[in-house]
Amino acid sequence: MIKLHDKVFKPYLSEEQILGGVKKIAAEIAKDYKDEVPIFVGVLNGAFMFVSDFLKEYQHPCQVSFVRLSSYQGLTSTGIVETLLDVPDNIEGRSIIILEDVIDTGRTLKQLVHLFSQTNAKEFKIASLFYKSEIYNGEYAIDYVGLEIPDNFIVGYGLDYNELGRNLKEVYQLNQANMINLVLFGKPGAGKGTQAGYLKEKYNLKHISTGDVFRYNIKNETELGKLAQSYMDRGDLVPDEVTINMLKDEVEKNPEAAGFIFDGFPRTAAQAEALDNFLQSKNMMVNATIALEADDDILVARLLERGKDSGRPDDQDEGKIRNRFDEYNQKTAPLRAYYEKQGKFHSVNGIGEIEEITERLSSVVEELA
């Protein structure tokens, strides 16, 4: 194990495995280009070690140059790719092979393709030492791959976490053994949103509210947002698969989180199973589900009081409030059974001062750590 800044990383790929991937790519490219003089373009900063070892393996005439792009900050891709060092000169009529350290979502690759499509190169191909096929958008062909790897955050062999780790000979992956993922339940007025905010700050968790995620995707007209809207416009329920894909995007955008709080999903046992399957594919799991329990009469009083300020019609009618409670009870009962069977259901008293309730929730979380 090594520690870089605030994160712990565990060994993942040995120097021998990495160099095996480098040799594989060099041999495949040599077979295709040994009779001409290609230009190899390394993508800085991450590919400098790969380019160096690749050129030692490539035993035919060639030229080398570099471009520099950036889309990462810490553990997270910003989604904005900056060109910091431009394409080499005199590439007209030449074969260009881009040497990438890692291809994951494909954002950086899209910018590279855009750069070289504006030149008069004979052709350009893409070689990546590491390739995360499960999250790659598949927009462009990857011509040469050294090692196909799962979607784990890695450092070493040129790759960094906030500029540390590039000089490591081996590759390490983020240690997620201590990750804590929670599902938070609670009737309207139980203080679920307030407590999620405290847990988020205290344990470096990412709070994923399904309602907020839906609103974000629909407002920004993402592909998933437009898909969800198409169902809603027809008066149909949005399929669980669409919701899961929205949650997947949120998880992948926040790899620096020490865990996640899922709020508003799952609502059925089928959704709980879908969430389990998704998290399992990421080597994660739901560690606990916590229900904030409170007497209905107390919650009715809270909501009626809240309704005076919020102006929400559903917080101003006791009959509507109690109907929402009945709906919650009906939906939560099978979920409670689902998670009790896994030994993951925890009931917490939601009545008292905010700090007291936070302490009760914290005692559950700290038993998991």
Explain what you see:
The structure is a single chain. With about 375 residues, the protein is α/β, with parallel strands linked by helices. The chain has two domains: about 1-175, Rossmann fold, CATH 3.40.50.2020; about 180-369, Rossmann fold, CATH 3.40.50. It is built from eleven helices and 15 strands. α1 (about 15-35) packs across α2, α4 (about 190-205) packs across α11 and α5 packs across α6 (about 225-235). The longest helix has 24 residues, at about 320-340. The protein is elongated.
Please tell me the overall pLDDT.
86
Give the helix/strand class.
Answer: alpha/beta
**The CATH topology of the largest domain is what?**
Rossmann fold
Low-confidence stretches: 72-85
Spatial strand order of the main sheet: 5-4-3-6-7-8
CATH class of the largest domain: Alpha Beta
Could you write a compact summary of the structure shown?
The chain is of the alpha/beta class. The protein contains eleven helices and 15 strands.
Layout of SSEs?
Layout: E1 2-4, E2 7-13, H1 15-33, E3 39-44, H2 48-57, E4 63-73, E5 76-85, E6 95-103, H3 107-117, E7 123-131, E8 144-148, E9 154-155, E10 171-174, E11 182-186, H4 192-203, E12 206-209, H5 210-219, H6 223-233, H7 240-252, E13 260-263, H8 269-281, E14 288-293, H9 296-310, H10 318-341, E15 345-349, H11 354-368
Helix pairs in contact: 1-2, 4-11, 5-6, 5-7, 7-8, 9-10
